[in-house]
Q: What sequence folds into this?
């Protein structure tokens, strides 16, 4: 799940990047398989993505470049991208969780900055395919619109939809894609992760069934604003809702479906028994909460029923199983407090 950033409108003027990238691609041979890639199948390869676009390649793609979240999802299924793009560090400079199990020393980073994409660096990898999540319909996350033509002059793009889907469905979609890319989903680590995810999901659903009266509100924040999360817009929160968690749906502008943005003074707008807060802005909900008195006075907060949730949990069975187990443990001790 991703916090829809409000990036600067700085545009990257690529000029003749499309022609240059295509020329660079033509000048490079494409006959080497990256370390860790699966054997190539014979004959043409095709896959229809979540935009409805049919991607065709003369052979199964061996050299995949993926947005870091997609790379993490594929990595846990046995696919090894050769390149990534997207932030691997937070605003504080510390590693974030989006890369999951990806060995960052074994991949080439195209760009870490939202709104930028080094097309020539991408082309130099001689990629067969680019893969990216979609949090907005038909828009590839971290792929600047003005760069799409130049990128697709090098290799086709493939989008995986997250919007209004439960994360288990998104993981299933990555499993389809990984299979098409030659991954063995019967490998022991994959089967173990899938079984643990199923068990963790069952455990959470059993606790939520016993805690039907708990009303839960998902929050994120900046120092100046509070964001009420729409559980239907985020794949991970949608999973929690499907597993029986009673999540509050705020008033949403259809043009901005992920969040309702308010001032901190309106923190008490939606009475809740449990606060599920964005762990990336944890300080505002924990050590710094005295700065936000309306929030600090909430019954859930006073009762110690504010729980951290990591929105950057990689989209994989392996990553989500422990997250669900921890949430199950935390919820088991909570009670209604909102009146």
A:
């Amino acid at each position: 799940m991703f916090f829809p950033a409000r990036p600067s409108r700085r545009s990257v003027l690529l000029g003749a990047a499309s022609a240059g990238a295509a020329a660079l691609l033509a000048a490079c041979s494409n006959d080497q398989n990256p370390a860790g890639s699966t054997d190539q199948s014979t004959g043409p390869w095709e896959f229809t993505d979540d935009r409805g676009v049919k991607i065709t390649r003369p052979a199964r793609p061996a050299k995949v470049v993926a947005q870091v979240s997609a790379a993490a999802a594929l990595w846990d299924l046995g696919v090894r991208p050769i390149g990534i793009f997207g932030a691997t560090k937070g605003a504080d400079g510390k590693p974030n969780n989006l890369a999951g199990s990806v060995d960052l020393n074994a991949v080439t980073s195209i760009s870490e900055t939202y709104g930028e994409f080094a097309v020539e660096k991408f082309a130099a990898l001689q990629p067969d395919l680019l893969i990216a999540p979609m949090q907005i319909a038909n828009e590839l996350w971290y792929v600047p619109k003005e760069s799409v033509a130049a990128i697709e002059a090098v290799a086709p793009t493939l989008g995986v939809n997250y919007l209004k889907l439960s994360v288990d469905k998104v993981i299933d979609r990555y499993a389809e894609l990984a299979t098409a890319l030659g991954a063995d989903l019967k490998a022991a680590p994959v089967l173990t992760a899938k079984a643990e995810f199923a068990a963790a999901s069952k455990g959470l659903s059993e606790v939520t069934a016993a805690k039907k009266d708990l009303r839960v509100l998902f929050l994120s924040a900046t120092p100046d604003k509070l964001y009420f999360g729409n559980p239907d817009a985020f794949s991970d929160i949608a999973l929690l809702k499907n597993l029986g968690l009673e999540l509050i749906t705020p008033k949403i502008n259809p043009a901005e479906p992920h969040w309702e943005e308010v001032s901190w003074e309106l923190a008490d707008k939606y009475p809740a028994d449990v606060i599920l807060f964005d762990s990336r802005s944890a300080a505002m909900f924990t050590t710094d909460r005295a700065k936000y008195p309306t929030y600090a006075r909430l019954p859930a907060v006073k009762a110690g029923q504010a729980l951290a949730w990591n929105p950057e949990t990689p989209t994989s069975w392996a990553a989500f199983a422990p997250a669900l187990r921890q949430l199950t443990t935390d919820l088991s001790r909570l009670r209604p407090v909102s009146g």
Q: What stands out?
A: Confidence is low (pLDDT under 50) at residues 1-40.
